[in-house]
Design brief:
Layout lengths: L1 H48 L9 H6 L15 H10 L11 H19 L2 H10 L1 H6 L2 H5 L2 H13 L3 H48 E7 L6 H7 L4 H8 L11 E7 L2
Antiparallel strand pairs: 1-2
Helix pairs in contact: 1-9, 3-4, 4-5
């Protein structure tokens, strides 16, 4: 009976602990949801005041799902060049301010305005922001109609029009997934480079082997490395390297490996 009571007490204790953890998690989730809602409202207001398209509200969500060749980071997927822009406008710090929502948003919106002024079109400005200025400059009507970033932006706007906070809530997970994909891609590229180098080394070794002959020479009385090198048309330094010789001294009866070109 006593053991049964203890087991029940343990069950009640664990249930209470689980309930507490669930309550804490729910509270944290509610706080995060409120933060995303406030940020979405703030950004929407900022876009209105700057007379910028409302769909830019969903650009961070769209960019967070793309894997870029350059090292982009933060809410707005800013490039290293953009990081310099952020640092120039912010107090001196060793932190990557692309990760700061406030600074990165200010820089991103200003950059979009600059691109709009340069290209004369918000579609081109958004394309240039996502893929580089050259893409915006070169884009014609067909290119803009088929641009993945603009298509994804239209889809995101339709999907999250009534709940933009949900789009921002999804961004951290999308960024984490992008980082994993980037690491996987980087590892694959490194493996491919290593394979190419190994292949080139093997081809080089095969080419050398096809044009050289290897012999073992037994040193005779009066031989010198210089005389042997001249006889077999090789360098003294090579003789030393092939035979792990530190100096010029050799002895009668010593065996030397010699690699010479076929003639």
């Amino acid at each position: 009976m006593l053991r049964k009571s203890k087991n029940l007490a343990n069950i009640f204790h664990k249930s209470a602990l689980i309930g507490l953890l669930m309550a804490v998690a729910a509270s944290c989730f509610a706080q995060e949801a409120a933060r995303f809602e406030a940020f979405a409202d703030s950004l929407r207001t900022e876009l209105q005041e700057r007379d910028m398209p409302a769909r830019i509200l969903f650009l961070p969500y769209v960019l967070s799902g793309r894997v870029f060749e350059d090292e982009r980071a933060g809410l707005w997927s800013l490039s290293a060049v953009d990081a310099v822009r952020v640092s120039a406008l912010a107090p001196a710090t060793e932190e990557d301010l692309r990760q700061d929502e406030g600074f990165s948003t200010f820089v991103a919106l200003r950059r979009l305005e600059e691109l709009h002024g340069l290209l004369g079109s918000w579609d081109k400005a958004i394309l240039a922001f996502a893929e580089g200025p050259a893409a915006g400059v070169a884009a014609d009507a067909d290119a803009l109609a088929g641009a993945p970033v603009l298509q994804a932006l239209a889809e995101a706007e339709a999907r999250f029009a009534d709940r933009p906070a949900d789009a921002f809530a999804a961004i951290p997970g999308r960024l984490a997934r992008r980082d994993r994909e980037r690491e996987t891609l980087r590892a694959a590229e490194a493996a491919a480079r290593t394979a190419r180098v190994d292949s080139l080394r093997k081809k080089s070794a095969a080419a050398v082997a096809a044009t050289t002959s290897t012999r073992v020479y037994k040193v005779k009385r009066g031989d010198t490395l210089g005389a042997i090198a001249i006889r077999y048309h090789v360098r003294v330094s090579d003789l030393k390297k092939w035979n792990n010789l530190r100096g010029d001294m050799i002895r009668e009866g010593q065996k030397l490996v010699i690699h010479s070109k076929l003639r």
